[in-house]
Amino acid sequence: MSDKQFVHVIDDDPAILTSIEGFLTTSGFWVQTYASAQDFLETIGPGTTGCVVADVRMRGISGIDLAGKMKERRLALPIIIITAYADITLAVEAMKRGAVDLLEKPFNNGALVRAIREALANWNNEVAIAPGTEIVRARLSTLTPKEKEVLSRLLKGMPNKIIAHELGVSTRTIETHRATVMSKMNAASIAELVRMSLTVPHID
Questions:
Q1: Both 43 and 95 in a single domain?
Q2: CATH at 20
Q3: DSSP string, 36-64
Q4: Is residue 154 part of a domain?
Q5: pLDDT tens digits for 148-163?
Q6: Which end of the chain has fewer CB within 10 Å, C or N?
Q7: Whether residue 73 sits in one domain with residue 15
Q8: What is the DSSP string of 122-180?
Q9: What is the pLDDT of residues 51-61, one digit of tens each?
Q10: Is the pTM value of this prediction over 0.70?
Q11: How many domains are there within the chain?
């Protein structure tokens, strides 16, 4: 029996589907492609395994809506959202709908492979994908009051320039605070920061 893992790739751009299918296949995955989220939903069943990679902007059901539908149908498959328009608002919505990660185009092929392997490994473990509540709270405790103010606004999807205006500081200062927050929270990406925030109901 093969130990290859399945990846379901959904995108309405044939060129992107072919490209992703090619490098994932050479990376050792079994790959099935779909031209729409509807095609995917009509094909899979309760016994389907693997990881889902879906674009955000597609005709019909979007990648974000697909994540929500999978969650509603209790389809136990991790889903990674890919998009050319990543921002924190989108990441928050994706995570709330059940996505495990969000990658911004153009992404390095290796980054997608790592994201898929991590998603599959974490999905199969009893350990939660995001750090536990106590770990997140411990990291939050290292933030200064100003850094917490910046974090809370970032999680609302506010751009650096607007945050700077609200807090009465320069955009460069906000960029510095943002980098410090990412470092103290041990978040390698916006999606990871959002996942951690969802384990703590209120960040004050």
A1: yes
A2: 3.40.50.2300
A3: SHHHHHHH--TT--SEEEEESS-SSS-HH
A4: yes
A5: 999 988 887 788 899 9
A6: N
A7: yes
A8: HHHSSS-SSPPHHHHHHHHTTS-HHHHHHHHHHTTT--HHHHHHHHTS-HHHHHHHHHH
A9: 999 988 888 88
A10: no
A11: 2
